[in-house]
Amino acid sequence: MDYKVGDLVTRKSHNHDTIFKIIEIDEEIAYLKGTYIRLYADSEISDLSLYKDDIDKEERKFLDSIEVKKLDRDDYFYLPGKILHIDGDDDYLNRCLDYYKKMNIAALGIKEKESDIPFVIRKLLEEYTPDIVVITGHDAYYKKKGGIDNLNAYKNSKNFVEAIKEARRYEKSHDKLIIIAGACQSDYEELIKAGANFASSPKRINIHALDPAIIATKMSFADVNVDIDLKGIIEKTRYGKEGIGGIKTKGTMYIGYPR
């Protein structure tokens, strides 16, 4: 079968477990990007199968489950937290921004190469003064480079760690600036130690493209005076505690009266 850039495909050798988009073809090798998962891969063209549906059933079920209940329009008014979302991938950034828009949240998206984020994040925080910052993109754990506790064995975890540290120099309080950091297979422990409120990936698994945005949305709508339901928020992500973990903190939404 002839394939072209933009086709949706799965891999026979991986039991068709992930849907990819072809982003480049070089002779008999196709370079792939996960449609829903923050993952790059390559494959022999002979191992591919064309995916013809718009969306699989499990993905539809997941998207339905992350619908956020709209705020009741009673005598009170609500000020959800502002989000700054810095992402190393255009496609995933746009998906997250669409999600924020659907949830009626004020969010600014910035496309920035993962290695450059530590050098620009301070300026962005000072300019946009968000309540929540998302630092994400692509990452991977390379077993051949070292154990899971070796930061140098990861594609971008070190960049995420440096970005978090820089953000914490700007604002030390975990309650005043919520940091959500990491991507697929990231060094969870180091991201948390650096100062993140939430991070991926405790079990070094791939995460969903929307997982950082789901956490950010939940934190945006969480009451500033109340400790969050940590387990409840994490369980709303695609792979739960295996994909993302975090620390207990308060939300970012102020509630006022009268409307």
3D structure, described in words:
The longest helix has 14 residues, at 157-170. This protein has a six-stranded mixed β-sheet, sandwiched between helices. The chain has two domains: 8-50; 66-256, Response regulator (Rossmann fold, 3-Layer(aba) Sandwich). The termini are far apart. With 259 residues, it is α/β, with parallel strands linked by helices. Helix 3 (117-128) packs parallel to helix 4. It has helices at 57-65, 90-102, 117-128, 157-170, 188-194, 211-220, 230-234; strands at residues 8-11, 20-26, 29-34, 40-44, 48-50, 77-79, 83-87, 107-111, 132-136, 178-181, 198-199, 245-246, 254-256.
Topology:
Elements: E1 8-11, E2 20-26, E3 29-34, E4 40-44, E5 48-50, H1 57-65, E6 77-79, E7 83-87, H2 90-102, E8 107-111, H3 117-128, E9 132-136, H4 157-170, E10 178-181, H5 188-194, E11 198-199, H6 211-220, H7 230-234, E12 245-246, E13 254-256
Parallel strand pairs: 7-8, 7-9, 9-10, 10-11
Antiparallel strand pairs: 1-2, 1-5, 2-3, 3-4, 6-13, 11-12
Helix pairs in contact: 2-6, 3-4
Tally of structural domains: 2
Q: Beta-strand percentage?
A: 15-25%
Order of strands side by side in the largest beta sheet? Answer: 8-7-9-10-11-12
CATH class call of the largest domain? Alpha Beta
Roughly how much helix do the residues carry, as a percent range? 25-40%
* Major beta-sheet overview: 6 strands, mixed
The total beta strand count reads 13
**Reported CATH architecture of the largest domain:** 3-Layer(aba) Sandwich
Which H/E pattern describes the elements? EEEEEHEEHEHEHEHEHHEE
Q: What is the CATH H-level superfamily of the largest domain?
A: Response regulator
What is the overall shape?
A: globular
Kindly, what is the distance between the CA atoms of the first and last residues, rounded to a whole number of angstroms?
Answer: 61 Å
